[in-house]
Amino acid sequence: MKLELRGITKRFGSLVANDHIDLVVEPGEIHCLLGENGAGKSTLMNVLYGLYRADEGTILLDDHVQAFQGPGDAMRAGIGMVHQHFMLIPVFTVAENVMLGHEATKALGVLDLDAARKRVREISSRFGFDIDPDALVEDLPVGVQQRVEIIKALSRDAKVLVFDEPTAVLTPQETDELMGIMRQLKESGASIVFITHKLREVREVADRITVIRLGKVVGEAAPTATNAELASLMVGRAVELTVHKNPPQLVDNSLVVEGLSVIDPRGQLVVNDVSFEVRGGEVLAIAGVQGNGQTELTEALLGLQPQVRGSITLDGDELVGHSVRRILDAGVGFVPEDRNEDGLVGEFTIAENLMLDRAHGAPFVKAGNVQRGYLAEFAKDKFAEFDVRAPGIDTPVGRLSGGNQQKVVLARELSKDLSLLVAAQPTRGVDVGSIEFIHKRIVETRDAGVPVVVVSTELDEVAALADRIMVMYRGRIVGIVPGDTPRETLGLMMAGEAPSEGAAA
What we know:
This protein is an alpha/beta fold. About 30% of the residues lie in helices and about 25% in strands. It contains 17 helices and 22 strands. The strands form five sheets. It has a six-stranded mixed β-sheet, with helices on both faces. A six-stranded mixed β-sheet has the order 16-19-20-13-21-22, sandwiched between helices. A four-stranded antiparallel β-sheet has the order 2-1-4-5, covered by helices on one side. Keywords: ATP-binding, Nucleotide-binding.
């Protein structure tokens, strides 16, 4: 099915999110919509999917004008959408999620779950998904949950599939599998719109590339375009894609972890006897497939895990057994892996989020009252320093793009007198321009003599930032190797294979 968008314009008050956008996607084509977070990509696709009504413009399918009143109309017309944040009910089975909203019934109004199971098996078999229709969604890995989203769309005979930032929550291995699935869908004749800001993925899978900046189409490119050319189109300037850093200048202050084990609420040993040291002035990057204990390890460093054995000392002071408040007050900066869940309050303003973990005393609060004047000056300073793109410091942080939300988190954490920085997935869901900025600030923190722990599933990021790399597998350390260790070696370590003696750091 051919998709054509003509002159699509969408306004939110004075903000023009989409400005007369034209786009054509041919049958059997993967058309990439590339742009920074906040460029208007998702807004455009929400117009296509019937979630928003365009203020101007026309949607055509096979040259027929469409007038969608909601997502139901779009789905009936053959459009399916795989959202960045999955639209699944965790306590429902795969089959129940697939039939949700399109419930087939038998006699007396009984739900026909057998038909849904059959449909799941048919689509799973066609694309090699190997998904149990009766599995609970909450028990499935993230990559498999995304396949359930794809099955949902295909079960409704979607001919145009929109993938909205589909790799934001996937490991490198799951991303590769998704690329293969997209190629299969393309070969079956589907028209695919692939929304992303990751240059490696674009060049790997796209047939054509349309670049959007500030709500407008600013150019088209072929997959043969270089990363530098694509990045320049995205942000409107030359982007430095390489992290420049001098050899580490180590100082005495350090984080020392000895015999650390973490038991999760289910009684499972998720971090198993882990020991390592991070000196001031270096970045230790923790690599591994998501779910191998990295999250629990970083939470233990912050005092967020209740069942911890072993020792964590920062500049000789024991952290285990102390409250999160005391650990933060010791100068620990924390960038959580899920900024929406653990890093920000969406309804609060940018200014209020900048004082979140320092609202218990001076200089932000005195005698129980927020010092509004001080907060405003501080927020304006960080707003400018971290180049937050928003109308002003009183903007609710939930209205910002992902990259700008992450800048708010970093502005808050890096404005402390730091003795340790722990950054988990620091650029997850962030565009290339913001990645450049975030990496630069992390390196500056390291160069200031602060121990830095970075947790990332992005091997490119690990290689760019790390002075040393610690790989985890099933809660244990597989090895600690130099920052310039080849990707192939790291890949084997992520599968549990210990490094050769020459590779160990």
